[in-house]
Amino acid sequence: MSSASTDKTRVLIVGGGAAGISAAYAFSLHPDRFDVTLYERSSSPGGMATSTPIDKDKYGADYINDGVQGASPVFHNTYAIFERLGFNASDVGMQPGHRQVEYLDQHFLHFVLDDATHNFLRFGDDIKKFGKVLKVIKALEPLFALISVSAMLRMFRFSKEFGEVIVFPLVALFFGTGNQTPFISCAILERVFMDPNMRLFEYSAESFLASIPTMRAFPRLSTLYSAWKSLVEEQGQGSVRVINEREVTRVERSSAKKRGGVQVWSRSTGGTDNEQSVVDPGEEHQETFDELVICTDADAALTILGKDARWKERRILGNVKYLWDVTVTHNDLEYMEKYYRVQYDSCLRSMQDPDNVDKQKKFEFAEKHFSPLYFIRSYPNDKRKVEMSFDLTVYQPQFDGVSPEGIKPDSLSKGSDTASGIPLKEHVFQTIFLDNSPESVRFWSKDEINPDKVILQKWWKQQSHRWQHYAGTVPWMGLINGKVGASSGPSLYQDHKHMANRITPISPVHGPFSVELHSHRRVEQV
């Protein structure tokens, strides 16, 4: 296993997702000081950033990224790492679609906002008030960080429908919070509108969104992580080893700060299956390390620590709530057309200001370039609960012939208004059914997807992003990092936000470096 030298600190990193491989990368910058082993229980690094081969003759591309699609342009360090590895993301205009009766899009938002007679804006007053409330939240952010979105909407007397039709679906779709959206901190909502470093949306007092947000679609992530693994090991000059198909089962830490204070038990695996369970586990093997960096979700961290977990670790990590979602990647156009607005329909045009030249130009653009890549619908019996889908053929650049390494910097970026020539009936879709609790499963329509058109079904463990998470876990992580020979990577509290795990590549490590990579510019200078 590890081959440590006596004058180096022996470090074990548990987990090879975005956080773990970032920590390994940071350690590899100092091969003279650290001897590092990373154990990842699956067959490849990347965590949720996985790629799956598909039939190119049938679908127009030979792979999909099935776990992580892309990210906002604000995640500069992510793209800096991409560039360093020789990869690039592709810009894509983000057209979202609601369910059939309530479609939300830059060009059709007024359909939702008009009332039945098209004489006045249905949510006009709420939308204007929303802009003012965002300023209040920004001014009092520490207070509102502990207030949920649903509580904020009630506090400022927004209509119930405004939350259900506009706010909850929008945040669930673009922020990845799913059915937990009513319970997330409203300070997070404010930041995606107001914070210059986190902004996803441009607010409009008339149409809620002033423009189509730009996203970036990722290159082939399995290839990227393979390249990153190679870079880490090469840069580490033999002092860093990334080992797949090995699971850490338990650890014991000495309370005294001394070398060899971390005892670790691990076992070989045959990788993980589509339910995230270990395949063919082997016998346990014991090793000794000086330091431990845990880059797993909080549940897994507590399982690994077991009885060795201190009360602060149990309290802080145990506060994180997890849910299980399932993605169904499929080619069932009938299902998509039943529940979503997949094709252009002129009836969606707003009847207000028919002589407005600018608006008519937008309608013409929409008719020619209608190609939503995000879809969302609320369940009629509980509009707080949602189902989300993607058109991967529109979203992912390989369907336009872009190489697995991504679009070249001097090339035009892919946009959703330049959809591939692949017929709609051959498009690859992915539908996400959220939270397998009985309260949510009863609304699922997963069984309506034609089994013959299912390409892949996969389960994912997701954190809830409740406001309690930001009150009871995030501010207190420093109390358990670097204590008793252990540090915790950001996947403990950002486990399904792939891009966030790389905002600060050294964040899993408790201050061992003189050079910190806190921004894109700093990354480029290293």
Nearest-angstrom radius of gyration? Answer: 24 Å
Percentage of residues in strands = 15-25%
Total strands: the figure is: 21
Runs with pLDDT <50, length 5+? 98-120, 490-526
Q: Helix segment count?
A: 18
| Structural class label | alpha/beta
Total number of distinct structural domains: 2
Mean pLDDT: 82
Helix content: 25-40%
Largest sheet: 6 strands, mixed
First and last CA, distance: 30 Å
- What strand order characterises the main sheet? 7-17-18-19-16-20
Shape: globular
Which descriptors would you attach to this protein?
alpha/beta; FAD/NAD(P)-binding domain; six-stranded mixed beta sheet; 18 helices; 21 strands; globular; disordered C terminus; FAD/NAD-bd_sf; oxidoreductase activity; Zeta_carotene_desat/Oxidored
Structure notes:
With 526 residues, this protein is of the alpha/beta class. It contains 18 helices and 21 strands. The protein folds into two domains: 199 residues, FAD/NAD(P)-binding domain; 289 residues, no CATH class. Helices cover 29% and strands 21% of the residues. It has a six-stranded mixed beta sheet. The protein has a five-stranded parallel beta sheet with strand order 11-2-1-15-21. A hairpin with an 8-residue loop joins strand 12 and strand 13. The chain is globular, with a radius of gyration of 24 Å. The two termini are 30 Å apart. It holds the Pfam family NAD_binding_8. One of its GO terms (molecular function) is oxidoreductase activity. It comes from Tricholomella constricta.
